[in-house]
Amino acid sequence: MGRSVAVAGVTGAVGQEFLSIIAERKFPFTSLKMLASSRSAGKKIPFLGKDYVVEQMTADSFKGVDIALFSAGASRSREFASAAVKAGAVVVDNSSAFRMDPEVPLVVPEINPQMIKKHKGVIANPNCSTIIGIVPVWPLHKINPVKRMVVSTYQAASGAGLSAMLELENQAREILAGKPPTRNVFPHQIAFNCFSHNSLLGPNGYNEEETKMVKETRKIFDCAEIAITATCIRIPVMRAHCESINLEFTRPITPDEVRAILQTAPGVSLLDDREHNRFPMPIDATGKDDIFVGRIRQDESLPNNRGINMWVSGDQIRKGAALNAIQIAELL
Question: 151: pLDDT confidence band, cut at 50, 70 and 90?
């Protein structure tokens, strides 16, 4: 049965990805509304053989809409989600606006699909770094509970949107042409450089991205006692985040056991070729649905084989954002 769908923030990187995934997965819709800010209103977007006109998102945009896919930023979500819910829509929100609200399910379909049933009109999509990190950790945690998780992220420019990707491209051109790089989106040069994630720093010295990973993982795993610490870094890659993940388990576990578990885990692809020193790269994950996992090895600094190191790469516009939201919509 088809649903009436609205895409809020349709002209952004995630909004555009929503459309390509709806087409690819043949998501059943009876009607489709494309919503954006007044700047984009009136713009035509060709989709599945038809031209759609982008409408300005207002409180009245959601009449007759069943599912509203939001990716227009937290302030827009706070402004318009309640209007969508009042109009009878279920909002799948890709921003940080409602993630830590105890009334709102925070869902990764491979991990806690049962939470979808508990929604009161809004379901939150986790942060992209959180999703990419925990999809491969969950199947391990179910078998042998993770006590502590140390994550270092290597995050692509696209995590900051379309304009950030263009900035990386332009800066690379400028620097190679011997010109000074133009900075508009990021606080520092992104081309040929890397820097601490450009989200706000809290009084404890952790930035928002790091704090999100900690809090969201505990909520999704429904495990308040799991110890997590993160360091999030922006790198000059177009698309697909990488993460180095160190796990301390309750009981001993070997790299072979980890590989065997991940071999059949949903949403995970193993790319762990020691013989050729070939492991996940952003170019492997770009445009793909799965999280790629490799460099699986024993953490020899922990006693009794209770530690594992691994390296992951995932397309954060797809699984880290649009795909996760559409999987939620499919389950709805």
Answer: very high
